[in-house]
Amino acid sequence: MSDDLLSSKWLKEQHALAGNLPRRVVILNVFSGWLLILQSGLMAWIVNAVVFEAATLGDQMVWILLLPPIFLLRGVVNQQAERLSFRIGSQVRSQLRLELFDHLQQLGPMRLSQSGSAEISHAMIEGIDALHDYYAKYLPHLSVMTLIPISILIVVLPLDWVSALVFLVTAPLIPFFMIVIGKGAERVNQRQWQKLARLGAYFLDVLRGLPTLKTLNLSRQEAKLVARMSDDYRRSTLTVLKVAFLSSLVLEFLSTVSIAMVAVFIGFRLMWGEMFFLQGFFILLLAPEFYLPLRSMGVHYHARLQAVAAAGQLADLMELEPVKNQSTTQELPESPHITVEVSNLSYRYDANALALDGINLSIGFGEKVALVGPSGSGKSTLINLLLGFDRPQSGEILVNGIDLATIDGEDWLRQVAWVPQNPRLIHGSVIDNIALGAEVVDLPRVRQAAHLARADRFIDQLKAGYETQVGEGGQPLSGGEVQRLALARAFYKDAPLIILDEPTASLDAESEAAIQLAIEDLGINRSLLVVAHRLQTVRNASRIYVLKQGRLVEQGSHEQLESQKGIYAEMLQGVVHA
Ligand code: ADP
Fold first, then answer.
1. Does residue 7's CB lie within 6 angstroms of at least one atom of ligand 1?
2. Please, what are the domains in the chain?
């Protein structure tokens, strides 16, 4: 099946999220169509009686008085249909956002790293918004476009087969031309959508890399590139609009010519006395209403094109397989001791070469295990697997003797404190950041954690102490300070297993020493796995594992490895790196 068909199929499947609302909209729209026929019939009747049958307006008062309630009722019915349609759009959007958000959570950081973050936020915000008009306008209109002309045709056919024939022959031309033009428009739309996604990702990269670009004196050049891309996007937007206007023009032209044809046929037959005025006038009043839903389809078709383009991206995201647990998961029995046993672990990203190849490793209770290796050797991959963010293709990870794949993910993460290399602060106070994830905040423990992480001194010096707002838009903190807050977070969590990725960035001497001491303390009475980048850390480790190109090449204590003159000894020359 082509991508477009798959996207349309996916879009239709999501329609179920609106429940029975679409059916109610169809009923309302058809009812409105019948009211319209009734209204036209009444008007034709009154005009015919007054003009040709010498009746007075007074004679026709009953019929005339019937008109305003019909107008009013149609207004109310149309307004209700609009309101319900809008509700369909917003209901589908919010449900989809929840589903997508849920799905992203299940995918975990490892699988998500394969799609750019700009791409994901683009899909989540603009992508889902682009579906609104499809559900709120295009789909409801699809039923209007078929049911109202059919109702009119049923009324006209017994009255005048010639007009019915003109309706029948010309009506399919409109959707036909719309599809012909639409095919071209679809391609243009998809291209524009991809451009927008690319532009978003590019902006994000430029923003992130702005300091680097500035130091390399490249910011002006980048600005020119951004301007060129924006201009390119503007051009493709205009192309989309051109096609949209062109399709509206063609549809308007076709329907105007068709109405004119009906009018000419009626006119001649009235002149030749082959038709009554009442009949002809009634059909003439209905003719524009017959083509109106077909004509306005051009406008709504644009919504469909946009939605199909956005749906491709959304469906791709939804198709990513979440991390699979075994069919039944268990809770990890509560224990202050955690031991980890990794055996024969192999992992590959999609069709790439093995990122980890037959790894065997163990972390005993109270042990401080260091993981070293050049960049790209698989350290982060191993840590992500230990955190349960994905499952290895072969081998297993045993936690206190239980296969990690059978343990409930959330339960496992409660037992682990993870300190990444570049920790992120959330928008909130220092307390919120240290007690992150805790339901009830224990203030004395927050202070104690800050003290152990050697963060208390700088926190006390902040404007509002522990209440100071940090994170995005808050008080800026240095790299060393953020690291210490992240360590305080780990102390507060007090998990039996700590996984820590040492910062590689050079820190000021005070932070460096404080962080070293804090890491030492964190390892007391806990199992600690540290991706080490510093001599001090590896020296104190109970065991060091050296990774190279996904394989475990050396293991042992600092002294043993130093004397082996292997890759570890080489790394030591550069005072442990990467
Ligand atoms: P390290 O943390 O030691 O620098 P990684 O675990 O990040 O190493 O990477 C190990 C290997 O896996 C590298 O060859 C890297 O290119 C590859 N890799 C890492 N992340 C991804 C990813 N998201 N998709 C594909 N390959 C990846």
1. no
2. 3-319 (1.20.1560.10), 329-415+495-506+527-578 (3.40.50.300), 421-494 (3.40.50.300)
